[in-house]
Every structure is written in structure tokens, then in C-alpha cells.
Amino acid sequence: MNERAINFARALLLTLPAVLWAGAAAAHGVAEGDKSFLQAASGMQLLPYLYLGAKHMVTGYDHLLFLFGVIFFLYRMKDIGLYVTLFAVGHSTTLLFGVLSGTHVNPYLIDAIIGLSVVYKAFDNLGGFQRVFGVQPDTRAAVLIFGFFHGFGLATKLQDFSLSPDGLIPNMLAFNVGVEIGQLLALAAILIAMSFWRRTQAFTRQAFAANVLLMSAGFVLTGYQLTGYFQT
């Protein structure tokens, strides 16, 4: 196997939490150009909303970190498909419900919980629940529940804009499809890198450090959002 490819995959995965450290404020953020489009768009704009949904997922550090933690020790595609589907169902449900119903939740608190979802999965990967509490939570239920919070996190951002009611339902459906497409693209890249890394002898040793970094990134995101909550 190409040693350079292995080193690249390892570096990519080990530095993923650091991306959040450098860009915590960007999680669930919307670029200025995208904001202008969302506020000015009227009628059905299926392709643009599809693109924006995919773009959000590919650049959503919080989503990627959580998914990275979820699939970290999953080797069978059947298991990966199950957990990713559970996350997608949760994420899609609250994203559509939050925007279409106008249900609003404090965005800082929601994003703080999303940060804790990253902490939870890293702690779980480290065997923390068994070692500290002597129990093992149902990981499938946890992924679904945290998927609900991730969806609400994006819904709160979209609610900040005066979205036109004309074509809102099909536009939101297209946006949601784009989110899932972006999730699949990001997940494919992570899995390719993981496949190289897992074949190295150092994976077991580095897996511990990677999850410690992942947990640290989750705490950073949580702390950032809680600071914003108490300052507003």
C-alpha cells in the first residue's frame, strides 16, 4: 500500500477535530452570499436549495465530527448504513418540522447540545460508559436522538431569514435532499481515509488519541455556544 496515502489519511482524520477548534463559529453558519439568496428567493428554487443543503453538510464541522465518531469503529457497511440512516431520519425530521412549523428553539442551547453529541460519541468510543458508569447506552437510540438536535440546529439558522412562503415546502424538501447528498459525499471521503488508516499497525494506539481530540473538539464547541448564550 502507498505509504504516502496512508500518512495522508491518518493526518486527515487526526486533524479533523482541529478544524472545529479553528472554525467553531462556522458550525451551522450560512455564508453571506447564501443569506442574500435565501432572503431574496421566491417561488420554487429546487436546484439552488439542493446545492445549499449539500454545501451545508459538507462544510458543517459539527455534523462531520459527530459522524466521524459514529463510524469510527464500524467496519461492516450494513452497520454504517443503519447508523447513518438513523441520523438522517432524525436530522431530516426536525429540520423540516422546525422550519415549516415555525417552532423556534434557542440556537445557542441547541448547538451546545450538538457539541455534547460529539463529546458523547467520543466518550462512548473510548469505552467510558462501561468503565465509569458500568452501563452501555443504546447507541442506535442515541444517534437518532442527537440527529433530532442536529436538525433543529440548522432549522434555527434558517428561521433567522425571512423565507418566502411561496414554494417553501418543495424548497425545504430539496434542501433536505441536498443535506443527505452532502452527508453521503462527506461520509464517503471519511470512509476512504479510514480504510487506509485502519490497515496500519498504529491504528489501535492512535485511535485513543483521535477520540480524545474528538472529545476536546466537542467541549470546545459546547463552551463556545454556552458563552454566546450567557452573553446574549
Describe what this molecule looks like in 3D.
This protein is mainly alpha-helical and 232 residues long. The protein has one domain (3-231). Helix content is 79%, strand content 0%. It contains 11 helices and no strands. It has helices at 3-14, 16-23, 32-40, 46-59, 61-71, 77-101, 107-125, 128-133, 139-158, 168-198, 203-231. Helix 7 (107-125) runs antiparallel to helix 9 (139-158). The radius of gyration is 18 Å and the shape is globular.
- Please tally the β strands and state the result: 0
Number of helices: 11
Sheet-strand content, in percent, reads under 5%
Which geometry do the CA atoms define? globular
- N-to-C terminal Cα separation, in Å? 52 Å
Please, what is the average pLDDT?
Answer: 84
> Biggest β-sheet, characterized?
none
Structural classification: mainly alpha
Assign a percent range to the helix content: over 70%
Report Rg. 18 Å
Uncertain residue segments? 15-27
The H-and-E topology, N to C, reads as HHHHHHHHHHH
Domain count: the total is 1
Q: What is the oligomer described by this structure? A: single chain
Features:
mainly alpha; 232 residues; single chain; globular; 11 helices
Give the SSE map.
Blueprint (H helix, E strand, L loop, with lengths): L2 H12 L1 H8 L8 H9 L5 H14 L1 H11 L5 H25 L5 H19 L2 H6 L5 H20 L9 H31 L4 H29 L1
Compact description:
The protein has about 230 residues and is an all-alpha fold. The protein has helices at about 5-15, 15-25, 30-40, 45-60, 60-70, 75-100, 105-125, 130-135, 140-160, 170-200, 205-230.
